[in-house]
Amino acid sequence: MPDPARSRLRPFTLAAVAAAALLLLACSGDTENSSADQSRWRPGPTTEPWQFQLQGRIDTAIPAPVYEVDGFDVPGRTVEELQAMGRKVICYIDVGSWERYRPDAGRFPRSVIGKTYEGYPNERWLDIRRFRKFAGPLKSRIRMCARKGFDGLEPDNIAGYENRTGFPIRAKHQLRFNRWIARQAHRRGLAVGLKNDGRQAGKLVDSFDFAVVEQCFQYDECGQYRPFIRAGKAVFEVEYEIANRRFCRASQRARFSAIGKEYDLYARPWRPCRDDSG
Questions:
Q1: Domain assignment present for 4
Q2: Distance from the first to the final alpha carbon of the chain
Q3: Which range of residues forms the domain containing residue 28?
Q4: Alpha helices for 104-170 (secondary structure H)
Q5: What pLDDT is recorded for position 169?
Q6: What span, in angstroms and rounded, lies between the C-alpha atoms of 267 and 53?
Q7: Interval 44-102: pLDDT, tens
Q8: Cβ–Cβ < 8 Å for 97, 115
Q9: Distance between CA 232 and CA 142 in Å, rounded?
Q10: Could you point out which of 12, 76, 77, 135 has its C-alpha 20 to 30 Å from the C-alpha of 149?
Q11: CATH number at residue 200
């Protein structure tokens, strides 16, 4: 979810084949399923506006080629409907904080649940240094996105090292966790986006397929995501507090897909940046 207080930076094989795949993964932690790797979505830089909706009934009439929606709340039939209209659909899940209201909340050990996420009383930071302790529910969430037919994954809250989490999380821990998340998505045929971890974008661009960025024009942080554009990868950007005239032309020059939204992330308002818009 977006953060109005700016407290964080912020979509059956045969048994023998499965066994062989597991053996291959055991030999190399960075090895991905080759067929999934070849077929997954790889969005390039675009200035076409996207849609970011996490609440309410999905409005399929928004004329955006890329939608990001909540992985738990949106059924597979809605994903299929959007895809039938030519859209790509990103699955939003949280991987760096614990959400009290999710159906799998009980699967996270208390020992890895930290401080309350400022501004969100029902969310608490997770100790991603020990992510193996809650790898099970995270993998289940990613499988859910793949099962529903999503094209991509947006794992939220992957910059905990910059926040007061209650744990001594450092940049090296974040890099390890973020790369692990990216591998899990790729193994299930999903493109994966780097969410708001601009300071590590240069080190993570090879692991991620696109970036999702909040308020980088307002806070003068957009330059951190140039490695994605240089690598031929899309940057999907959203602003909540500044008018389109203050960032749209800059977003066009940067080759970002940019929109203006409200913090609640209902379908509308949707304020798209288009070519030479202001």
A1: no
A2: 26
A3: 15-272
A4: 135-147
A5: 99
A6: 5
A7: 999 999 999 999 999 999 999 999 999 999 999 999 999 999 999 999 999 999 999 99
A8: no
A9: 25
A10: 135
A11: 3.20.20.70
Please check the confidence at residue 160 and state whether its pLDDT lies above 60: yes
Rg (CA), the chain: 18
Sign of CA dihedral 160, 227, 239, 199: positive
| Cα distances (Å, whole numbers) of residue 216 to 9, 33, 66, 143, 158 | 9, 34, 20, 30, 16
173 in Cβ contact with 128 (< 8 Å): yes
Whether 73 is in a domain gets the answer yes
**For helices 171-187 and 135-147, what crossing angle results, to 10°?**
40
Could you tell me which residues are beta bridge partners of residue 154? 92
Q: What is this structure's pTM?
A: 0.88
Q: Which residues pair with 93 in a beta bridge?
A: 155
> Sorting pLDDT into bands at 50, 70 and 90, what band is 269?
very high
Three-state SS for 262?
coil
22 or 162: which leads in pLDDT: 162
Exposed/middle/buried for residue 121 (C-beta within 10 Å: 0-12, 13-18, 19+): exposed
Q: What is the pLDDT of residue 274?
A: 85
pLDDT score at 16:
38
Q: For all residues of the chain together, what is the average pLDDT?
A: 90
Asked if residue 123 belongs to a domain, the reply is yes
Q: Quote the CA–CA distance of 76 and 147 in Å, as a whole number.
A: 8
Task: Report the number of distinct structural domains present in the chain.
Answer: 1
Q: What's the token pair of residue 235?
A: 């940057």
| 104: its two tokens | 């799998």
Structural domain contains residue 37: yes
